[in-house]
Amino acid sequence: MKSVISTLLVNRKSLLTQLEGLTEEQLYTIPKGFNNNILWNFGHIIVSQQLLTYAIAGVPMHVPATLVDSFRKATSPANWSNPFNLEDLKALAISCIEQFDKDLDANIFSNYKPYLTSTGLTLHNIDDAIFYSQMHEGYHSGVIASLKNLVK
């Protein structure tokens, strides 16, 4: 499982590189035909990993509730009342995976409950959640790349 965690960390660092040099306007722009912006997709990746692993296992998450409320599935930046600090999100992107690795070693996810994803896949345990998170992050990384091309 360590190689999968390493891959998640590499993916997160790659995302940080993708975000370099973007203006606040570019981060917040929702192009025609899209429901969300670059910042939402980035925050959604962070929050979803926490929900799919910690929350379903009944373990406290390492992200503030305000982020969960703003970046979980079926939310929109159109409903945000305050801007988010990109640097804070960048720090969480890395620290959450590093903490997740430690928590896996501590075996705190033993109460994982089966969860049916919106794609129709049932996650039965933490290993399923890790693999699904990796796929989910890859999808949203692609969306970020597309949005970046549209807003530049």
Molecular structure report:
The chain has 152 residues and is mainly α. It has one domain: Four Helix Bundle (Hemerythrin (Met), subunit A). The chain contains six helices and two strands. The chain has a two-stranded antiparallel sheet. Helix 1 runs parallel beside helix 6, helix 3 runs parallel beside helix 5 and helix 3 runs antiparallel to helix 6. The termini are far apart.
Tally of strands = 2
Sequence of strands across the biggest β-sheet: 1-2
Class by SSE composition = mainly alpha
Counted up, domains total: 1
Shape summary: globular
Order of helices and strands: HHHHHEEH
Biggest β-sheet, characterized? 2 strands, antiparallel
Named at the architecture level, the CATH assignment is Up-down Bundle
User: Between the first and last Cα atoms, what is the distance in angstroms?
Assistant: 37 Å
**CATH topology label:** Four Helix Bundle (Hemerythrin (Met), subunit A)
Proportion of beta-strand residues: under 5%
Catalogue the unreliable spans: none
Identify the CATH class.
Answer: Mainly Alpha
Task: Give the % helix.
Answer: 55-70%
Mean pLDDT: 95
CATH superfamily: dinb family like domain
